[in-house]
Each structure stands twice: as structure tokens, then as C-alpha cells.
Amino acid sequence: MVNWELHGMEFGNCNCSYGCPCQFNAPPTHGHCQAVAFFKIDRGHFGDARLDGLHMALAVRWPGAVHQGGGTFQPIIDARADDAQRHALLSILTGRETRPMATFWAIFSAMCSTIHPPKFATFTVELDMQARRARCSAEGVATGRGEPILNPVTGEEHRVGLVMPNGFEFERNEVGRGWSASSGDVVLNLSDSYAHWCELHFTQDGRIRH
């Protein structure tokens, strides 16, 4: 198995209501799960291949809850990556060269019966976790936008997050609202639904716990 490590940031948007019942081992809001997520790598490596400054994304849908399987997965890879980096990003994103079920990418992949060939795109990823704002694009393939939840009475920004000490995706996150869309092999259009921002720190053995 290749030794790898990455540190960065995620913006993810799914079709559930704010808070996302899936985070509490409850059924998804609408009985099925759809999501678009963008990943910004600040620093990382996959064997000898450096991953600093690269991006990847996914668009995925399941007919029921994630753990029930049967999903369809579209990997999206930074077009700037060379061949070794493309192999690395796709391997991480689809759970290869990873201990079984050790990362959320590996879990998502295992719960998909169809994983389409990757799309390669030019990325723009602007993430501010503390402000709960995001503007992301994988040109021609996927877009994502995130904002804070607003108090329905005062209109003021509402700050809330989740703490999951044993979480396989994050230890803590910031929760907001998101809009995203994808084209190609997995077509999605999500509007004003659950979104989150979280720090990423992973190896082939899973999330690094601080």
C-alpha cells in the first residue's frame, strides 16, 4: 500500500435539511442522499508525488441512505495535475491505497455500485470556514456556493457546528446552507440545503486525530 497524507479543507453540500440527520445516524431528510463536495489540498503527498495546492471534487447520489449502497459516484480531478498526481488524487478519492473503510472517501466509494471515469477540470475554490462562506467551481462539471444560516426573525447570521470526536470525516465542522450543481454522469441541483466546512487531515489509515 502506498503511504500518503494530505491536509486541507472541505466544502460539502447535500440535499438534507440544515444539520443533516445522517450525521446523527438517522435517515436522510428526503429518504435519499445526494451531495457535491470540493476538497482543497494545502499540503500532501502520495508516495513521491506532491499534492500541494491541488483540488478534487465529487458528485454522488444514493437511492436511499448511504449505508444502504447502490450509489453513483463522479470523481472530479484537478486538470493541472500530472499523471502521477492524477493517479494519486483518484486513488484517494475512490478509496484505493487506503485501509478498508478508513476514510470517508473509501466508505462513499464502497457504497457505490457505479464509479464513473474521472472528469478533469479547472478549479476555483474559495473557502472561509469561520465565515461559513464558499464559492467553488470545477469548470464545466460542478459548482458550489455556501453561506451562513440566517435567523428567520432578525436576519442575522446564525453560527452552529457539529462536534464528532470519533467522526470518520471530521472532528468538528461549521454548518451553513449551500447551493450546488453538477453535470455529466451524475446530474444534481441542490438548493438551500445542508452545507458544511471542515478541516481535512488524512492518511491511508484514516483521519488524523489531534
What do these coordinates show?
By secondary structure, this protein is mainly β. It has a single domain, classed as Acetoacetate decarboxylase-like. The chain has 2 helices and 15 strands. Strands 1, 2, 3, 4, 5, 6, 7, 8, 9, 10, 13, 14 and 15 form a 13-stranded mixed sheet that branches. It has a two-stranded antiparallel sheet with strand order 11-12. A hairpin with a 2-residue loop joins β2 and β3. It is globular. The chain starts with a strand and ends with a strand. The mean pLDDT is 97.
Reported for the largest beta sheet, the result is: 13 strands, mixed
Can you count the beta strands? Answer: 15
- Find the CATH topology: Acetoacetate decarboxylase-like
Class in CATH?
Answer: Mainly Beta
For the record, the count of structural domains works out to: 1
Alpha plus pi helix count: 2
| Multimeric status of the protein | single chain
Based on the structure given, which CATH architecture is correct?
Beta Barrel
Q: Give the overall pLDDT as a whole number.
A: 97
Report the helical percentage: under 10%
Q: Which strand-content bin applies to the residues? A: over 45%
Distance between the termini: 24 Å
The run of helices and strands is EEEEEHHEEEEEEEEEE
Radius of gyration, in Å, reads 16 Å
Q: By helix and strand content, what is the structural category?
A: mainly beta
Contiguous low-pLDDT stretches (5 residues minimum) are none
The coarse overall form would be globular
